[in-house]
Amino acid sequence: MDAAAATCPLCLRPGAVPVLAFEQPSARVLIELIAHNHPRWSPEQGLCRRCLAKFDRLLVRLRQYHPAFADRTYWIIPTPVRLDTDDRYTGRGVTIAFLDSGFYVHPDLVKPDNRIRAYVNILKEHASVEELNQEITQPHVDAWHGMMTSVVAAGNGYLSHGVYRGIAYEATVVLVKVGSIHRITHDDIRRGIEWVIAHRQEYGIRVLNISCGGDYEASYLVDPLAQAADAAVRAGIVVVAAAGNKGHEPRHPVIAPANAPSVITVGGLDDNNQLDWSGFRMYRSSYGPTLDGLQKPEIIAPSIWLAAPILPGTPVADQARLLELICQAPLRRVKAVLQAHPGVEPILDQASDQSPVALQKLARHLMRANNVISQHYKHVDGTSFAAPIVSSIVAQMLQANPQLTPQQVKLALIESARRLPRYDVDKQGWGVINPRRAIRRALGWAQMPLPHDEQPHRNGS
User: Fold this and answer.
1) In Å, what is the CA distance from 216 to each residue of 123, 208, 219, 375?
2) Are 301 and 149 in contact (CB under 8 A)?
3) Which positions ≥6 away from 275 have C-beta within 8 Å?
4) Residue ranges of the alpha helices (H) in 155-297?
5) d(Cα 333, Cα 356) in Å, to the nearest integer?
6) In this structure, are residues 442 and 400 in contact, taking their beta carbons and an 8 Å threshold?
7) Digit-coded pLDDT (tens) for 196-223
8) At what angle are helices 406-416 and 435-443 packed, to 10 degrees?
């Protein structure tokens, strides 16, 4: 078989030798998993050893930690797998600051080692350390959004045995509360950015993730929030901001700080929880041009089907725990588990007279209907979560080459991205982020151009 004939049908790498024999005991499930991610693939086509090893690892991870995997109709692919990231780079030595409505000391950030370097509440300038510690350890409603964004980027998957970890799972974080879940103002986001600039050297902040936006549209030339974001970049901080989620509306403005020229603005990709590009499509993210005529976003990243933590100590956490217990319980124990948790899930309570098999089937249905992965995680959507994915990849790049400037980081990201075919350029910018190519650009900065097959796809192909 010559090199041309030996191209892998999945990764298209020339010279790969297809593996046609599936000899593992789990072959049938493995074939189903590959076919789920690549619907046009068939076992007769084979695949290269690298792709086979990748799916083997994914299968092991899902079986280790996925209560609903038994029926093989529902699984959520971990973010590092869906983006095929380079595991050698974990964000070690890089600090990411997050601006959000609130935060919580989730185990994925503090166990076995506490990687939260600082927590500050912009709304409480004179709060004591004790007050702030109490605030961040309480599972209040303001905490869930920032908890999710920070863990999506830098969580180590402690509660999932490492399965649902972020890309920069060894990075340290600084958490800056700039509002509440009900309202985050233009001015408070600006104050949060200014705090990060003032403390960047103290905490070694290299990346600033902003998964929130101001409350009005304005030119960056006169808007204090956009100017603060640009000032952070001039201070050496890579600023990453979510584009917003109004792409399906007649007006879909990109507002500050995402409208600032130097900010890396992130739009949304819907990868359909698959690895095959043929199923990729745009998420409903906001896009430009801005009032100043700037095209935003620059890049897109997964914005749906993303594993994120459930806020502990809440009714949602109680429901998720019950669903997992029922799914995993031996049939003889299913009704006893349900009886021990009255009032947690009314639909299950109403069905308590059904058979254990029916109850487990109903519990799996409720997991899917409520986006529950397990008692600790659910899948979420929004560009609020695409932005921290990009921030985590930036942390990888800075670990690979700490000398990179914010401008070099942005250029490497857009030059290594790949555009989605059939979608307008104004909605996706330079296209889907590609972590491996971006890191190669970071490592080889200003030394040599990328090989021809690594050049960015500027023609939509």
Assistant:
1) 20, 21, 10, 38
2) no
3) 10, 37, 38, 77, 81, 82, 84
4) 186-198, 200-203, 224-234
5) 8
6) yes
7) 999 999 999 999 999 999 999 999 999 9
8) 130
What is the predicted pLDDT for the residue at 148?
98
Alpha carbon 167 to its chain centroid, in Å, reads 8
pLDDT band at 276 (very low <50, low <70, confident <90, very high): confident
pLDDT for the residue 72: 53
Tokens standing for 140? 């209040």
Give 377-395 pLDDT, tens digit per residue. 999 999 999 999 999 999 9
Q: How far is CA 457 from CA 163, 276, 422, in A?
A: 32, 17, 13
DSSP H or E segment with residue 148: helix 143-154
What would the pLDDT profile of 299-316 be if each residue is shown by its tens digit?
999 999 999 999 999 999
Burial of 253 (0-12, 13-18, 19+ CB in 10 A): buried
> Tokens 């109004």 map to which residue?
246
pLDDT of 457 higher than 80: no
Q: Which of 288, 231, 241, 289 is nearest to 264 (CA)?
A: 241
Nearest one of 62, 108, 82 to 303, comparing CA atoms: 82
Alpha carbons 461 and 459: distance in angstroms, whole number: 6
What percent of the chain has a predicted confidence (pLDDT) above 90?
72
pLDDT at 71: 54
Q: Which amino acid is at 4?
A: A
Q: Which residue has the tokens 């209907």?
A: 369
CA 12 to chain centre: 26
Name which of 88, 87, 93, 86 is nearest 395 in CA terms: 93
The predicted structure's pLDDT at residue 339: 96
Name the phi and psi angles at 364, rounded to 5.
-65, -40
- Cα within 13 Å of Cα(352), Cβ side: 14
Q: For 345-413, where are the E strands, in sequence order?
A: 377-380
Closest C-alpha among 301, 307, 254 to residue 280: 301
